[in-house]
């Protein structure tokens, strides 16, 4: 499993200490690191296909103050896709109305029939990137049908439908940002946590910092804006539970990395 860290706040948050602790976990997730900070939906992406603890660039980056309202960070333990730059998270893709979507994923699609068609058009080889392609196609379809960009509630409805569909039999922890809403989902127990204080929300695979944390609600898509929850989807009930068949699949796939 990879690890995720997300910040969504109404005001800029000093993130250096949180990021330093988060990236220290890379000894267990050595196959790449990534960082996305945002100005509207414009994502500044920095990533490398090496362990965060071995990155001279990242050490230098963390010496400079990082103050952001919205941030997504990722450290990778490769379970699908080779250890290359193209397979490092987060991934960014633009829809037909010009909105940019940024996604980081922690998990595996063991049943990926709906997204496998994107294998030949994606830049890398991860199932995570294919999830983003699938999302953008769904957004584009609805925008074409309506003849206009989707509003917030309509975008949330699309992502809720995608999550409800892909969660079945798959491990689906995601952080997704569309320039206005940060979408968060887990269907795997004890693998994503939330900390809420004033106008700031933190999301992490493993709690960082000294603030209080609690487990994120399971099997339910949530969306945050300016540090507050603004949407909640239905509980789809499709919890992922480890099993021998999927463990064997991961072992065989990782043998090719």
Any overview of this molecule?
By secondary structure, the chain is an alpha+beta fold. It has one domain: Glutamine Phosphoribosylpyrophosphate, subunit 1, domain 1. Helices cover 24% and strands 31% of the residues. It contains five helices and 13 strands. The chain has helices at residues 16-23, 56-62, 127-146, 152-166, 244-254; strands at residues 3-14, 33-39, 42-48, 67-75, 91-94, 100-108, 171-177, 182-185, 193-197, 200-204, 214-215, 222-225, 228-232. Strands 3-2-4-1-10-9-11 form a seven-stranded antiparallel sheet, covered by helices on one side. A hairpin with a 2-residue loop joins strand 9 (193-197) and strand 10. Helix 3 crosses helix 4. The relative contact order is 0.17. The model has no long low-confidence stretch (mean pLDDT 93).
State the CATH architecture: 4-Layer Sandwich
Please state roughly what percent of the residues sit in beta strands, choosing from under 5%, 5-15%, 15-25%, 25-35%, 35-45% or over 45%: 25-35%
Number of helices: 5
Q: Main sheet?
A: 7 strands, antiparallel
Report strand order across the widest sheet. Answer: 3-2-4-1-10-9-11
Structural domains: how many? 1
Number of strands: 13
CATH hierarchy, class: Alpha Beta
Structural Rg: 17 Å
Query: How would you classify the quaternary structure?
Result: single chain
Given helix and strand content, the structural type is alpha+beta
What's the SSE blueprint?
Blueprint: E1 3-14, H1 16-23, E2 33-39, E3 42-48, H2 56-62, E4 67-75, E5 91-94, E6 100-108, H3 127-146, H4 152-166, E7 171-177, E8 182-185, E9 193-197, E10 200-204, E11 214-215, E12 222-225, E13 228-232, H5 244-254
Antiparallel strand pairs: 1-4, 1-10, 2-3, 2-4, 5-6, 6-7, 7-8, 8-12, 9-10, 9-11, 12-13
């Amino acid at each position: 499993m990879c690890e995720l860290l997300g910040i969504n706040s109404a005001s800029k948050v000093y993130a250096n200490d949180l990021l330093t602790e988060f990236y220290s976990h890379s000894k267990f997730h050595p196959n790449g690191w990534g960082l996305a900070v945002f100005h509207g939906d414009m994502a500044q992406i920095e990533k490398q296909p090496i362990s965060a603890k071995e990155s001279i660039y990242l050490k230098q980056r963390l010496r400079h103050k990082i103050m952001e309202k919205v941030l997504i960070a990722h450290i990778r333990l490769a379970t699908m896709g080779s250890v290359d730059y193209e397979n490092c998270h987060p991934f960014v893709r633009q829809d037909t109305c010009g909105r940019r979507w940024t996604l980081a994923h922690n998990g595996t699609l063991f049943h990926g029939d709906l997204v496998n068609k994107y294998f030949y058009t994606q830049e890398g080889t991860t199932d995570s990137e294919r999830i983003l392609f699938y999302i953008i196609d769904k957004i584009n379809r609805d925008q074409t049908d309506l003849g206009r960009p989707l509003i917030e509630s309509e975008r949330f409805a699309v992502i809720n439908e995608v999550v409800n569909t892909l969660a079945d039999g798959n491990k689906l922890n995601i952080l997704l940002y569309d320039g206005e809403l940060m979408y968060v989902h887990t269907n795997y127990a004890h693998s994503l946590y939330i900390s809420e204080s004033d106008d700031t929300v933190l999301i992490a695979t493993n709690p960082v910092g000294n603030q209080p944390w609690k487990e994120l609600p399971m099997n339910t898509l949530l969306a945050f804006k300016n540090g507050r929850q603004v949407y909640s989807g239905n509980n789809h009930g499709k919890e992922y539970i480890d099993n021998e068949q999927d463990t064997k699949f991961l072992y065989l796939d990782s043998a090719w990395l």
